[in-house]
């Protein structure tokens, strides 16, 4: 197995709980890929992110961990590339939500895909984490995303966007499931 960890819009591979999780998995002897994705208006879009994934050799032995906008990007990527993976762990995923601000809307919108539930054809083991008080994406939007994909849902009380800003520089709940 190999693990792929993907950050969200305007994010960094060095942010949140990503480096911590990478080090914990590598300490177990796992292979972990943690790429820096293109970010910023004019740089981040479905094609630029797909170009990165195209180079990483994703296959049926890959476990994908994705945060924020990355879950819907992964859904769209797997569907359009007809690529199977072993497991999906989505953190604060959403689709077709606009209104955070104009820059986030500009970079998030190209990632959205209708009928994203088709991703289940490429991975039948999906777990979604989200919180009851995300300051960026409303609970009902994250829940609707998770409901379309899986019954395996973990709602973190007062978890915010499950990022460093919300105190998540480590993510024990996720590590326990890997």
Descriptive keywords:
alpha/beta; six-stranded parallel sheet; Rossmann fold; 31% helix; 178 residues; 6 helices
Description:
The protein is 31% helix and 16% strand. The chain has one domain: 3-Layer(aba) Sandwich (Rossmann fold). It has helices at residues 18-27, 46-54, 70-81, 102-108, 139-149, 172-177, and strands at 2-6, 31-33, 62-67, 87-91, 126-131, 153-156. It has a six-stranded parallel sheet, with helices on both faces.
Short description:
Helices cover 31% and strands 16% of the residues. It has 178 residues and is an alpha/beta fold. It has a single domain, classed as Rossmann fold (3-Layer(aba) Sandwich), CATH 3.40.50.
The percent range for helix content is 25-40%
Low-pLDDT windows of residues: none
What's the CATH C level? Alpha Beta
Major β-sheet profile: 6 strands, parallel
Number of domains: 1
Fill in the CATH topology.
Answer: Rossmann fold
The overall pLDDT average reads 96
CATH architecture: 3-Layer(aba) Sandwich
How much of the residues is beta strand, in percent?
15-25%
Largest beta sheet: strand ordering: 2-1-3-4-5-6
Strand element count: 6
What is the string of SSEs from the N terminus onward? EHEHEHEHEHEH
Q: What's the tally of helices?
A: 6
Give me the secondary-structure category: alpha/beta
């Amino acid at each position: 197995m190999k693990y792929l960890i993907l950050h969200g819009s305007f994010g960094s591979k060095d942010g949140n709980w990503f480096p911590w999780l990478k080090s914990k998995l590598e300490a177990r002897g796992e292979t972990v890929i943690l790429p820096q994705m293109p970010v910023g208006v004019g740089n981040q879009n479905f094609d630029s992110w797909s170009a990165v994934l195209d180079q990483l050799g994703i296959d049926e032995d890959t476990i994908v961990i994705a945060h924020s906008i990355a879950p819907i990007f992964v859904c769209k990527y797997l569907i359009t590339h007809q690529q199977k993976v072993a497991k999906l762990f989505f953190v604060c995923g959403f689709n077709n939500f606009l209104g955070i601000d104009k820059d986030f809307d500009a970079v998030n919108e190209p990632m959205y895909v209708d009928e994203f539930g088709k991703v289940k054809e490429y991975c039948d083991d999906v777990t979604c984490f989200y919180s009851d008080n995300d300051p960026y994406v409303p609970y009902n939007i994250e829940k609707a995303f998770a409901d379309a994909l899986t019954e395996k849902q973990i709602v973190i009380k007062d978890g915010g966007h499950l990022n460093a800003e919300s105190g998540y520089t480590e993510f024990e709940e996720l590590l326990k499931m890997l």
